[in-house]
Design goal:
Layout (H helix, E strand, L loop, with lengths): L3 H10 L21 E5 L2 H8 L4 E3 L12 E6 L2 E7 L7 H14 L4 E10 L12 E4 L8 E3 L3 E3 L5 E3 L8 H16 L5 H10 L3 H4 L44 E8 L7 H11 L1 E5 L11 E9 L10 H16 L4 H6 L8 E2 L12 H13 L7 E6 L6 H15 L4 E6 L3 H15 L11 H9 L7 E6 L5 H4 L20 E7 L2 H8 L3 E3 L5 H11 L9 H10 L4 H14 L3 H10 L1 H8 L16 H4 L1 H10 L1 H11 L6 E2 L8 H13 L3 E3 L5 E4 L1 H13 L3 H15 L8 H17 L8 H20 L3 H18 L5 H15 L4 H18 L5 H16 L3 H18 L5 H16 L3 H18 L5 H16 L3 H18 L5 H19 L6 H10 L15
Parallel strand pairs: 1-4, 1-5, 5-12, 6-10, 7-10, 10-11, 13-15, 14-17, 14-18, 15-16, 16-17
Antiparallel strand pairs: 2-3, 3-4, 5-11, 6-12, 8-9, 19-21, 20-21
Length: 1010
């Protein structure tokens, strides 16, 4: 070992300034420059360039590298110096400059040299012109990104993530320099003198500004007046000991970096206390993860409102001087020993998608999780989950390219995980790229070798994308008796790594990534339109705006479906209108269009592209994993795809039902509505499932089973269960539309169909859609006469209800004939006192009344009423209906007093028995008001009509015929009181009168179940 005095002498020689030499050296290559220096300002770079012992000729840059470089030598080291573009400051621009430098030169480490704002304290007596060096202190790496983190619930800002430390070679050199400074003293003045000798022009501006101009004001006192502090209050200057020497001192500690300039004393002190920093600047946080370096800052201000640029040149000079001295403590042999900079790998199956559109919010979140929030304390995992064809793979691919732009040192590896073979092949490709020894051995466990390599921190930063990880069973498989293990055992773990999964299965996504699951839905309208336009050869097609909107709506903004439609238009040279015509012509055409295969260079070889087939593998997985879920999916494809009630599904235990629905939600095939009582199935999945069932020859039998299930749970429609049958109605209609009665010769099935049709007729009748009700009853009647016979009670019930629907459409003669036929048959089959017979008597009486046969109607009403009171009781709803019918007949014969009394009696009873909002009660209110009207009691009639109208709008809806009748009646009452004209205007009154029903539905007792 050298004697202490000799060692000190040798160390001192390392940074003794030498004369700047002319560039007459032999030609150099990019490999000769392995130390990079980055400055933010031209002032800073000028000082650094002036520290060179010699300058070198420029070298050619890599394509895409926009930096401008100064090459030269300091001592034994060649360095490359770059500066941020004019006008740009902050972490982002600094990261770009560093990334470009690493592309053109094999940089082993770097220095960030420039000016910063100091934090004075009694502990750290930092003055203007001093130097602060980023030495790891406490839990920090030397640089703290103070403005990155998240706001906690208590309002406190929590910094997240951490930045990389400087490389060991710099930290060792720094320690040597500090040791030398203690024993012998590091004199920056000699390097500052060299700067002036090399560049005399800098002598005037880059000089010490004097202690009198180094003023630190109280943190709470803000700057006044112009750029200088000449007019600031001198009494608020912090009194500090006077320094005997102007030689700059060196301070070591954490430096705060952020994208915002700190110009406020109180804020400066608050951050300094919280983060333990002694300097503020704006670029270092953009470098530390991808450009491992030491940050050197000359102090030009105190990061408060009093900052100005007077001290910037001198501060830049002292920082550059320290950088020069530090390089003298780095042995060239140590540089040689350093491993060459790691060249990140990119193992991807596809190139970048130039037509990638939107999804920026998803990408931002991915980058945040995988890069910004990556604390290097864990191997981050995140999963993209969504329906097949929604674009998960393309988002993952774009994320890979964007991440490498932000973090150039990060390698990206792609693993297709649709099955074990594709997983193993992907791992072999990765192993070859990593040049793992022993990989060529036939007996080598490739998966385990790759896992081991990526789990080593020496491999550097990496992202592994595990695509199509839909079958979690191959990941979680565990059989002690088998030599095979689940694939999850081979997933690497490194604090420098991260894994991104894509899957259609939410349950799998949760297993892979816990809470870091990102849902990928269809595109929004703007994104889908842009994707459609980019995919078209003839861009003019999108000028058909309405056609484009309609097409994208039919394709539910699903990226795969959009690209498939565009491929069809490109191949057939078709217009959007022609495509829509084919699409809308029939459901079979939809399947044909969605089954068309098309070329896509961004899909795996051998993988089928059509929308109609892309989900087949998922259908099969569901069938294997949860047969009940497959049954539910098949059932849903036979009914309307929207608002499917949970209670409509085939019976199962609550646990099994929850598991089955959970599986379908997990794959994205259905979505639960907010109420939790119904579900929506994706429209294209609905179509594809129908196609799958047809391919398996199960469509017809499934429709039959669906019809049976709906019929078994569909209630007889009444006011009190309206919410239930209103939800079931569209699904029953859809099932019937798909069911061919000729497909089944089973009597029981046709009976069920007849029952369901009968119920649907009642639904339409209650909704006031009498023509639709008539159509349903006629279908029911035809079916029941064939299956049950003309005299069966259910057939008679259908005839009865058909006649009532004719009545409500003013087809009185047809209705009377049918009522008489029904009554005669019921008296024979059921007997004269059977409730259904009495109902037919009541309905015939009403039909007579509407045709002006008031005496006959009255007689039949009295006979019916007498029988009903005996058989059913005085308060039975059917008895009350007969009282209403009799009162109406009396009204028509001008027997007003008796009619009014009967209306009052009926209304009171109905309010008690049925409730005030029951449709029959509202009918009685309407009839009572009409009776008052006929007696000339217009004000009283109008008040009751208004009350009835409000209730009907709430209970029946504004477009219901009974509601329209109340509008007309109310208008007539007002007109009779001398208001001059109907309140709704002539046009609306005409519409109302056209729809008006002359006799309330409440008079009908006879809509019958069957």
């Amino acid at each position: 070992m050298d004697p202490p005095d000799e060692a000190a002498k040798e160390a001192a020689q390392r940074y003794i300034p030498t004369r700047t030499l002319a560039s007459a050296a032999p030609s150099r290559t990019h490999e000769d420059y392995q130390i990079g220096v980055i400055c933010a300002l031209a002032t800073e770079k000028a000082a650094m360039v002036a520290m060179l012992d010699e300058t070198h000729l420029k070298l050619k840059k890599e394509n895409g590298d926009d930096n401008e470089y100064t090459l030269g030598r300091i001592g034994v080291h060649n360095v490359v110096i770059a500066c941020l573009p004019a006008g740009l400051i902050g972490n982002g621009p600094a990261a770009i400059v560093a990334n470009n430098m690493r592309r053109s030169f094999p940089i082993k480490f770097g220095l960030m040299v420039g000016v910063g704002g100091g934090v004075w304290s009694k502990k750290s007596d930092i003055r203007l012109g001093d130097v602060v060096v980023s030495q790891p202190t406490g839990t920090h790496s030397g640089v703290v990104q103070w403005d990155f983190g998240k706001m906690e619930k208590d309002g406190k800002f929590q910094r997240t993530g951490s930045l990389d430390k400087p490389p060991p070679v710099l930290l060792h050199a720094l320690q040597e320099l500090k040791t030398f400074d203690i024993t012998d003293g590091v004199n920056l003045e000699e390097s500052l003198s060299l700067m002036v000798r090399n560049k005399p022009r800098l002598g005037q501006t880059y000089r010490y500004q004097g202690g009198d101009y180094d003023r630190l004001f109280d943190a709470t006192y803000n700057h006044e007046s112009d750029e200088t502090c000449d007019n600031c209050n001198p009494k608020l200057i912090v009194q500090r000991p006077v320094r005997k020497s102007s030689t700059p001192r060196i301070h070591y500690g954490n430096i705060a970096s952020g994208n915002e300039v700190i110009k406020h004393g109180t804020t400066r002190d608050k951050i300094a206390r919280e983060k333990g920093v002694i300097c503020f600047e704006m670029e270092a946080a953009g470098l530390m993860d991808n450009f491992r370096c030491l940050v050197i800052r000359g102090i030009c201000d105190y990061a408060d409102s009093h900052k100005n640029k007077v001290w910037q040149p001198y501060a830049a000079a002292t920082a550059a001087a320290f950088a020069r001295v530090l390089l003298g403590f780095i042995d060239k042999q140590e540089m040689v020993k350093m491993l060459p900079p790691f060249r990140p790998l990119r193992v991807l199956p596809f190139g970048r998608n130039k037509d990638f559109v939107g999804r920026q919010s998803h990408l931002n979140r991915l980058i945040t999780i995988l890069h910004t929030e990556n604390t290097e304390e864990n191997c981050q995992r995140v999963a993209l989950v969504g329906l097949g064809g929604v674009g998960k793979t393309q988002i993952a691919l774009e994320c890979a390219f964007q991440l490498q732009l932000i973090s150039p040192a990060c390698s990206v590896f792609w693993v297709r995980a649709s099955d074990i073979t594709s997983f193993e092949n992907a791992y072999r490709d990765i192993g070859l790229q990593l040049k793992i020894p022993g990989l060529e051995d036939d007996k080598a466990d490739v998966k385990r070798l790759v896992k081991a390599k990526l789990s080593q921190e020496s491999t550097g930063k990496w992202l592994m994308i595990v695509d199509n990880a839909d079958d979690f069973e191959i990941f979680c498989y565990n059989d002690k008796d088998s030599k095979y293990s689940g694939l999850s055992e081979y997933l690497p773990f490194s604090a420098l790594g991260a894994i991104l999964f894509t899957t259609r299965d939410r349950e799998a996504a949760t297993r892979y990534a816990s809470s870091n699951v990102i849902d990928i839905d269809e595109m929004d309208n703007k994104e889908s339109r842009e994707l459609f336009q980019r995919s078209l050869q003839n861009k003019q097609l999108v000028k058909d705006d309405s056609g484009t909107i309609k097409l994208l709506e039919l394709l539910v903004n699903l990226p795969l479906a959009i690209m498939q439609a565009a491929a069809y238009l490109n191949a057939k040279v078709s217009t959007i209108a022609e495509y829509l015509k084919i699409y809308n012509e029939s459901s079979s055409n939809v399947i044909k269009l969605l089954s068309k295969d098309f070329e896509d260079i961004r899909r795996y070889p051998g993988m089928k592209n059509p929308v109609a087939t892309t989900w087949l593998i998922s259908f099969q997985q569901i069938q294997d994993r949860n047969p009940l879920a497959a049954d539910y999916m098949a059932f849903m494809s036979c009914i309307k795809e929207q608002d499917i009630p949970r209670d409509l599904l085939p019976p199962a235990s609550e646990f099994d039902k929850e598991e089955a629905l959970g599986t379908l939600k997990s794959f994205g095939f259905i979505k639960e509505r907010v109420s939790g009582k119904s579900y929506d199935m994706h429209r294209l999945v609905h179509t594809a499932m129908q196609n799958w069932l047809k391919l398996k020859d199960e469509w017809k039998s499934l429709n039959q089973r669906t019809l049976c299930q709906i019929t078994s749970v569909f209630p007889w429609p009444q006011h009190k269960n309206r919410a239930v049958w209103i939800m079931y109605l569209p699904h029953a209609q859809y099932a019937i539309a798909n069911f061919d009665t000729g497909l089944s010769r089973i009597k029981e099935t046709k009976e069920l169909l007849g029952k369901l049709l009968h119920n649907l007729g009642q639904c339409f009748y209650i909704k006031g859609k009498y023509a639709e009700a008539e159509a349903m009853y006629r279908q029911t009647l035809q079916l029941r006469e064939t299956v049950l016979g003309k005299e069966h009670p259910d057939t008679l019930a259908t005839i009865n209800n058909l006649a009532i629907s004719l009545d409500r459409q003013s087809k009185y003669a047809d209705a009377e004939a049918m009522h008489r036929q029904t009554l005669q048959l019921k008296e024979t089959v059921l007997g004269k006192e059977h409730p259904d017979t009495l109902a037919s008597m009541n309905n015939l009486a009403l039909s007579l009344d509407r045709q002006g046969k008031y005496a006959d109607a009255e007689a039949m009403h009295r006979q019916t009423l007498q029988l009903k009171e005996t058989v059913l009781g005085k308060e039975h709803p059917d008895t009350l209906a007969s009282i209403t019918g009799l009162a109406i007949s009396l009204d028509h014969q001008a027997k007003y007093a008796e009619a009014e009394a009967m209306h009052r009696q009926t209304l009171q009873l109905k309010e008690t028995v049925l409730g005030k909002e029951h449709p029959d009660t509202l009918g009685s209110m309407n009839n009572f008001a009409s009776s008052l009207y006929r007696q000339g009691k217009y004000a009283e009639a109008e008040a009751m009509h208004q009350q009835t109208l409000q209730l009907k709008e709430t209970v029946l809806g504004k477009e219901h015929p009974d509601t329209l009748a109340s509008i007309s009646n109310s208008a007539s009452s007002l007109y009779r009181q001398g208001f001059g004209k109907p309140v709704q205007g002539p046009g609306y009154r005409k519409k109302v009168l056209t729809e008006k029903i002359k006799v309330s539905a409440a008079a009908h007792s006879g809509l019958q179940t069957a």
